[in-house]
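Input chain follows. Return structure tokens only.
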Amino acid sequence: MPQLPDDLDAVAVRTWCSLALEALGRERAEIDAINVYPIADGDTGTNLYLTVESAAAAVEAVFAAYETGATAPATADAVRAMAHGALIGARGNSGTILAQLLRGMAGVLADGGDAAHLRLALTRAADAARQAVAHPVEGTVLTVAAAASEAASGEGSDLRTVVHAAYDGALAALAKTPEQLAVLGRAGVVDAGGRGLVAVLGALVETVTGQAPVRGPRTAHGKAPTPVDGGSVVGLPVGGTPVEGVPAAGFPAGGVPEAGVPVGEGPLDCPEDGVAGPAFEVIYLLEAGDEQVARLRTRLDALGDSLVVVGGDGLWHVHVHVDDAGAAVEAGVEAGRPYRIRITHFATESGHDLRVQAEPAQRAVVVVVPGDGLAGLCTEAGATTVIARPGEPPASGELVDAIRRAHAREVVLLPNDAALRHTAAAAAEQARTEGVRVALVPTRAAVQGIAALAVHEPDRGFDEDVVAMTAAAGATRYAELAVAERQSWTMAGICQAGDILGLIDGDVAVIGADVPATARTVLDRMLAAGGELVTLVLGEDVPDSLADALEEHVREGHLAVDTVVYRGGHQRAPLLIGVE
């Protein structure tokens, strides 16, 4: 049996993220089913899952950075990674608020993970989330978070007592949400975002105590539950199976919503009954200063509702519901640098659009690219793209969304990163359950994806096309240049911070002092084994003169080899190289 933590150290944070992801995975569909506020679009559970998936992946990346298991990351590194991962991967209204809750906790837990720090972390989290919402409404996840904080604030010095108190407080508040928010009461459900937060806090209880919280009965119509033997209570046990006599997914007795109010329908917007809400949900990450964000809040608040802006230190996650999606994006452009822009039309997403949907294409390609430049190139070639920003790998949910956007019966998925192998496989499996035939070509670098896309022919048989694309990718050796962040031992020797590393097929092969010389050495080594075409992808700050010099270098040493150059935009590596 694993040793239970006395405080929330890095290992405990990792466990918490993993258990929270499992819990939301189990309850995702049921949380989606009770999502009637602020928009009845049935995706709160999915959005919370994807948000925590991104947080968990960020924490795993911190642990993977340690070369041996002898030491674990510092707690501060783990909680900050958790918060950052949630911020960049936040989805929907509830996911954005959860990201701010985790960010608020991380700011305190970075200094310590004992009971006193956890109590303060819960308070900071609830306060930060409420401040991030332009117009807070009671009976939502904000209410549940505040109740968790209040319940834990009076507890003693034992970590287990604090987490149980926070969970019980959140649970009791969740049961009361139908009394506080009319749309929930009419539908006979509790708040979906609040239920997701209860699942996350339940995972924290399991992390600290080693046991999932005990879930006892509640009254049929969502009244405040009565604790059983002083323990935690909720309507559904772990795993989502209803307790005898207790309705599933927050339904009234009998499991049927109140007459005339089907789950997933009802008022589309928050406070005023019968008033339809805005048509679009707009979400983006934004690089901007505090002053610019303050002005952005004011402008977006005038454009729409459900405004939530979370983050800080120059990076923000913006969520708003508007009728004019273009104006919301333009406001972000004026404030700073928006990216990962996602615009959802509520009518289409919730299935109420009466227009005839376009017939799906027979085949499409979905490709992950490291920068805007390659995204444009692949889009011109007919592919659907997902941008992997530096330090921000896409989650499986983003890949599934891209497969859906491709709107095809058959999809070829090019992850272009060895680290995305499992993520891409999970996305492909999910898409297959939705009736899409998906083939995963295991490309390990963007240049392999370019080579595969170049031979793609949608008119030939699916299997034949996949084989040709796989062969083209496999015949392309790949390399990239990187800057060493610290002294380290590599396959090419010991490097110092600031050295230029030339990685060939994923391994450090060259250690150099500058980009041009290192690039020439890497090219010479790769071309020594032969080749017909060199592909160069330049990073955002790399001058065109480097491409000219490298092209001349190839021409002088290898007369029969052609060179093509692309601009990759904002990507992690200053230079990507492919040799076919």
